[in-house]
Amino acid sequence: MKRTFTCGELDESLINKTVVLNGWVNKWRDHGGLIFIDLRDRYGLTQIVFNPQTNPRAYETAKHLRNEDVIAVEGIVVGRPPEAINPKMRTGKIEVHVQKLEILNKAKTTPFEINDQIEVSEDIRLKYRYLDLRRPRLQQNLIVRSEVYKIVRNFFYDEKFVEIETPFLMKSTPEGARDFLVPSRNFPGRFYALPQSPQTYKQLLMIAGYDRYFQIVKCFRDEDLRRDRQPEFTQIDVEMSFVDENDVMDVSARLIKILFKKILNVDVPLPIRKLSFKQAFETYGNDKPDLRFGFPIVTLNSVFESSEFKVFRNVIENGGRVAAIAIHPADGFSRKKIDRLTEDARQFGAKGLAYLIYNNNEFKGSVAKFLSQNELENLKQEMDLQNNSLVLIVADQYETTYSVLGQLRLKIADELNLLDDQKFEFAWIVDFPLLEWSEEQNRYVARHHPFTSPRTDQLELLDTAPDKALARAYDLVLNGNEIAGGSIRIHQRALQEKMFEVLKIGKEEAEAKFGFLLQALEYGAPPHGGIAFGLDRLVMLLTGAGSIRDVIAFPKTSSALSLMDGAPSEVSEEQLAELHIKVR
Amino acid sequence: MKRTFTCGELDESLINKTVVLNGWVNKWRDHGGLIFIDLRDRYGLTQIVFNPQTNPRAYETAKHLRNEDVIAVEGIVVGRPPEAINPKMRTGKIEVHVQKLEILNKAKTTPFEINDQIEVSEDIRLKYRYLDLRRPRLQQNLIVRSEVYKIVRNFFYDEKFVEIETPFLMKSTPEGARDFLVPSRNFPGRFYALPQSPQTYKQLLMIAGYDRYFQIVKCFRDEDLRRDRQPEFTQIDVEMSFVDENDVMDVSARLIKILFKKILNVDVPLPIRKLSFKQAFETYGNDKPDLRFGFPIVTLNSVFESSEFKVFRNVIENGGRVAAIAIHPADGFSRKKIDRLTEDARQFGAKGLAYLIYNNNEFKGSVAKFLSQNELENLKQEMDLQNNSLVLIVADQYETTYSVLGQLRLKIADELNLLDDQKFEFAWIVDFPLLEWSEEQNRYVARHHPFTSPRTDQLELLDTAPDKALARAYDLVLNGNEIAGGSIRIHQRALQEKMFEVLKIGKEEAEAKFGFLLQALEYGAPPHGGIAFGLDRLVMLLTGAGSIRDVIAFPKTSSALSLMDGAPSEVSEEQLAELHIKVR
């Protein structure tokens, strides 16, 4: 009884035809002496009907069918009476009158019902992932994900990119995140590492002359997993030769445009706006701004630099910032609510939160009485205040001021339901600092990675003021998420060595870890750069899923555990002995 | 000086246009006071010309250019004089008269020349893989490989398969090959394993209702590497629900047809022939027969079962086999050559090799005088002997007889240059034994894997004569290579448990290793089956490469070493401590 059709394709054109369907019992009901079953497969549902007159044995068997049993039926396609037509189902105008039934496999009662309304802990869902994956929503997520692979790959094929696989067993060169290690059996005491990204390989492919490379590839980071991180994640990895920042951004933007058009029928206007890192931070308080709503941060140092109000003036005199966001309309921001926001601001790291309410040409609020009329007028101008606005002011050190206002901005937008998930606001963040100071390591570390090129007009800064040097890096952000990041790379040995020096990676260490790359740079390396997209997060945004775990077939928990099969698990002493290791 | 064209696209339509090219100096020559350079990129070569009259400084700089330097040039496209036209080059009718030159990167002298005629050890090539990959042949191989990805994926997308990624950090369940292990940081003493194949995951995806799954995926086996094996290899992985053997073979054959048509313009006639395992072994001496040439093995037991010639009769009486291959024409098979073949037969495991030469209705050769006229006549008939044939006979135990003749057959075909690499002869091998006896483990092991279904009409054999049970498995072979293998899987818990029992995998062990799968089989598992193609080998055959290392961007040596970066390498004590392991 091999199916002749799937459960999603029968329609009126097939009335009176004999068909075979295979699928799962999705719903069973007994009505008017007949048994009705919705039979399910990936393609849809078909109503099948058992009549004791037609085949008494099949009817008897059907009586005992239960949800999730797997069956095969042969029957005739019949048009439904008008009152039974279900316009919501693709197959809603027909039903199949069963003549033969075969049970392909019985199912035990599932630990949760297979539908999207379940209220069951994620742990149970992950343990029975194969059942969870039957739910329409997860199935749809994975089908969209498959569609994304297809669109992405065909885009790059059309653009003459070569798809190349890079190794998973590579050299451990921890710089940034922790490596997953793989002990070698042939070389006692030596280890492979799983790639955190194919960074060095894709650069070598450019040096090898492949010109345009892409790959959709798993990467690995052994980090403590925050919400929505996975130890293994998928990257759309891209590298191009003879390009500058704009070339890479242009290809990436065109990919995004096609993806959002094909998957969501959303038009992404090109070009995508660019914000400098500084601009983003001083306007939105972070480097991945959510641009679906307003409330930009406005710096008010010029307004308050000679204020009588000491709190503000002192901050400014000590090199800090006074800045504010304006919420309009201010309705609903009770005293109590503002107190809660003040509490939030403290949680985010500020010493406090000042506020003003501007209404009918009047300022009220916690600091109104300390500020001069002139200052208030200037503030109004600077912030382009509308009537009935709430102004939240933070005066603190540079980072704190913007970061706290940025977090308040997001929190308020969330509370006001402004995070519209039908809206997609993209931006490129550019002009990142090349380095950041690591207190822990007491040295500069690369903000992006050590292969990112500094701006070539600023090379002298590497000696004089490394923290001022800007990188040729770019991130693509969408609705507060970083969805891609890349850079133009260093393509000359001398500059790469200089970079290692700035990072305090000694000659010997650089040689041991990256000697092959340094050497490769000497044999005719072209100028090159690239980008990598976080595919999991991108699919999450495209499907509106609440978590990346909902767009990954078999995800792990935040402690990197697979609840389904119990990995990681103990292994035999024999296996460890062969690998020349033992457990401490 | 960003390129306006690549080095492979300029033609007469662009004469008089100013263009910018970027690329590598591929060839440099000084001729008639001008400097000619072939500039190379992935897309082709363009001849560029430096004239001291046009730009004396550029000309001076060009004097010192060397092979593999990376440069940018701006110049005018000029038609070549008729005598200088190179019809072999796509850009052979034009050249570019350079007006501006910029050196993008200098290159040291490469350790070997960048061309396909190099005679340099593979070790050196692997150490400088990024230079090796510049050679036209390797570049072509990887571009074909990229094309293969594209064709394969679009085929499966069109056939409504869902592409799903499965985890790389999974549970260690060694059954067959050795696992690569990954120590867990969060769970001291516990380990992940890298997948030997996504077998259990793809079955779970069928149980989850995805109906048709595919993925091009890396797999890992920590084995001693024979020639042409890699510790990480790529598989086209496929699984389908509600199917039987023919459905999987049909989809696979149509994929192969499209691949060979699109890549090589070769028509693969469908359906692909099927041979049972027994037929293949008794006719070609192995389960991956090379069908590009004849010389089938013919069993002669019926001819010799009552022979006076004791050597043959004894073998038959002891349950062995007498069998032969006929080589036609026999020219060139001197006594000396036949002696060498006899030596080979011994190397392959036979006790000896008998031969006959049939010419002008007469038999000569080592055993001619021991055989009756009647036997010789019957042999002639059985083997359908043509005049001027050499008959090589082996009489030995079953396995030995066919295996030795199979190896001789291949050796002779190779010597006679019958292994035509423009010929592609496919076959399905079916009806494999389910089990094979492992002397080492003193138990039956699964010939394919423990999830392969036995033939459902032979289930009682599992109790009575497990070694006689056949599997619902199928291999696709091409020119002596296995390029794909698959099976219909067990989809019921009871049968899967029975199978573990036959394999002497105790209940407890089965539960610990595969409990999640056994459980999943109880919740409505559909009948399902699949196949996996070895992509590396397939691309090797499609490109005519001599080794799978020539179709992998960054391969490892046979001891699983990466000569380029030195992986595996030592790691820090700190890394090991975090992973709770130490080196023995």
UniProtKB/TrEMBL annotation, chains A, B:
- Grouped into one coarse class, the protein's main location is cytoplasm
The chemistry this enzyme catalyses reads: tRNA(Asx) + L-aspartate + ATP = L-aspartyl-tRNA(Asx) + AMP + diphosphate
Pfam families the UniProt entry points to = GAD, tRNA-synt_2, tRNA_anti-codon
Q: Where in the cell is it found?
A: Cytoplasm
Swiss-Prot/TrEMBL keywords: Aminoacyl-tRNA synthetase, ATP-binding, Cytoplasm, Ligase, Nucleotide-binding, Protein biosynthesis
EC assignment: the record states 6.1.1.23
Tell me, what is an example of a GO biological process annotation in this record?
aspartyl-tRNA aminoacylation
**Site description Important for tRNA non-discrimination, residues in chain:** H31
Residues covered by the Aminoacyl-transfer RNA synthetases class-II family profile domain: 144-555
Annotated region described as Aspartate, given as residue ranges: 199-202
- Which residues of this UniProt protein bind L-aspartate? E175, R221, H448, R489
GO cellular component assignments? cytoplasm
Q: Does the keyword Aminoacyl-tRNA synthetase apply?
A: yes
Kindly list the positions annotated as binding ATP: R221, D222, E223, Q230, E482, G534, L535, D536, R537
Q: Name one GO molecular function term.
A: aspartate-tRNA ligase activity
Q: Which InterPro entries match?
A: Aa-tRNA-synt_II (IPR004364), aa-tRNA-synth_II (IPR006195), aa-tRNA-synth_II/BPL/LPL (IPR045864), Asp-tRNA-ligase_1 (IPR004524), Asp-tRNA-ligase_1_N (IPR047089), Asp/Asn-tRNA-synth_IIb (IPR002312), AspRS_core (IPR047090), GAD-like_sf (IPR004115)
Q: Which family does it belong to?
A: Belongs to the class-II aminoacyl-tRNA synthetase family. Type 1 subfamily.
* Subunit details: Homodimer.
Record function comment: Aspartyl-tRNA synthetase with relaxed tRNA specificity since it is able to aspartylate not only its cognate tRNA(Asp) but also tRNA(Asn). Reaction proceeds in two steps: L-aspartate is first activated by ATP to form Asp-AMP and then transferred to the acceptor end of tRNA(Asp/Asn).
User: What name does this protein carry?
Assistant: Aspartate--tRNA(Asp/Asn) ligase
Q: What is the lineage of its organism?
A: Bacteria, Pseudomonadati, Calditrichota, Calditrichia, Calditrichales
The coding gene here is aspS
